[in-house]
Amino acid sequence: MVCYPLHYTVIMHGGLCLGLAAGCLVAGFMNSLMETIITFRLLLCHRVINHFAYETLAVLWLVCVDIYFNKVMVVASVFLVIMLPCSLVLFSYGHIVVAILRICSTQRCGKASGTCASHLTVVCMYFGATIFTYLGPRSAFSVEKEKMVALFYAVGAPMLNPLIYSLRNKEVMAALSKFLEKFRDKG
């Protein structure tokens, strides 16, 4: 769609948007349901989760039976819910970069690449932390490190998302500059 911006309304019609949203909701629900069912069937040795949120991996650390099947299901889930969307996003950004390189004007190229860079920063922060959590090396594992990375992808990346996008807005930047000038004048 990036390559055909004038066709956006034809390509992304209401039915397609509704179908994509419904597909995401159904896939998320089915993934959560599957992980919940296979996790709650396990025998737990401990009752305290050393984590700030319910994470499948945090619960699996409490189990005192073989969890091979659960690990296989987590890897399958990671592929479908994390790696597949991440690959599609990166594939899309590859097309965006090619489209940007075709632009002749330096000003338009700079603006487009700036927008693309801010989007890609948020995508890399979220997917990078998530992939590290679920596919990272277990040799570097520590409960505290795991909690920090999970906190980053669950709270940090979504919180930075509006900040990064709003700083691209001229009015927001002007208001921020005025605020910083007032703050600087008082100091």
List keywords for this structure.
7 helices, 187 residues
Q: Can you offer a commentary on this structure?
A:
This is G-protein coupled receptors family 1 profile domain-containing protein. InterPro entries: GPCR_Rhodpsn_7TM, Olfact_rcpt. This protein is an all-alpha fold. It has one domain (5-186). The protein is built from seven helices and no strands. It has helices at residues 8-11, 14-40, 56-60, 68-102, 106-135, 143-166, 170-186. α2 packs antiparallel against α4. The longest helix has 35 residues, at 68-102. The radius of gyration is 21 Å and the shape is globular. The mean pLDDT is 78.
Strand content: under 5%
**Average pLDDT score:** 78
N- to C-terminal distance: 49 Å
Unreliable spans are none
Q: Count the domains.
A: 1
Assembly of the depicted chains: single chain
Q: Number of DSSP helices?
A: 7
The biggest sheet amounts to: none
